[in-house]
């Protein structure tokens, strides 16, 4: 008797949970969202834009290494000379013990760096060469 009631209960429960054909064939979903979610998404986009701006500003490129010397005064004098003669080329001074390295420029291509190298050979006749580096670009 209990087995018969159990089987009848399972059959009724299965029929009650089944979908009707009209519900299964619609093929579309209606999503009701709070309009405040759109403003939150827009706010997050603005935050992401601000926080990733610096990362997008630095890209692989080329610089010209002007000097590599342990004499700090000599390297600073070369930096001043570059500021005076070529104010549009930004010098970068890096200390890697025991040497000071002076790099110049932000060049996207090797050709741009080679043209600037020809200009700089007037001031520094030897020891200049183009190197790969992470450069700053203006947005």
| Count of helical stretches | 6
Tell how many strands the DSSP assignment holds.
Answer: 4
Strand order of the largest sheet: 2-3-1-4
> What structural category do the secondary elements indicate?
alpha+beta
Dominant shape: rod-shaped
Helix and strand string, N-terminal first?
HHHHEHEEHE
* Residue-averaged pLDDT: 85
Descriptive report:
14% of the residues are buried. The chain is of the alpha+beta class and 139 residues long. The model has no long low-confidence stretch (mean pLDDT 85). It has a four-stranded antiparallel sheet. 48% of the residues lie in helices and 25% in strands. A hairpin with a 2-residue loop joins strand 2 (91-96) and strand 3.
Give a concise summary.
The protein is of the alpha+beta class and 139 residues long.
What would the keywords be for this entry?
139 residues; alpha+beta; 4-stranded antiparallel sheet; rod-shaped
Helix and strand topology:
Layout: H1 2-17, H2 21-24, H3 35-51, H4 53-57, E1 58-69, H5 72-85, E2 91-96, E3 99-107, H6 110-120, E4 129-136
Antiparallel strand pairs: 1-3, 1-4, 2-3
